[in-house]
Amino acid sequence: MTKQFLTAQEVADITGSSLSLAYTMIRQLNQELQEKGFYVVRGKISRAYFEERFYGIRVTE
To answer: Cys staple from 6: which of 10, 37, 40, 56, with CB 3.0 to 4.6 Å?
Structure first.
């Protein structure tokens, strides 16, 4: 079973960015989800939403 949420470290690894930038991306994406009425997990991002927003990225384990 695949994990439903990505951590900041996983986002940094996938995007090739720094850990601090990954946290910034997660904050922004979670803010978008909150504005749409979804509950969010602080410091993590939904795998499905991450893949939707980052065109061309498919996360595999």
So the answer is: 10
Whether 10 shows a pLDDT value over 70: the answer reads yes
Instruction: Indicate the helix (H) or strand (E) that contains 44.
Output: strand 44-46
Residue 59 is assigned to a structural domain of this protein: no
Say what the pTM is: 0.85
Query: Which residue bears the tokens 């065109």?
Result: 55
The number of domains in the chain is 1
Query: Longest C-alpha distance within the chain, in Å?
Result: 30
Which range of residues forms the domain containing residue 20? 5-53
Asked, for residue 9, whether it belongs to a domain, the answer is: yes
Backbone angles phi, psi at 58, to 5 degrees: -120, 115
d(CA 50, CA 31): 13
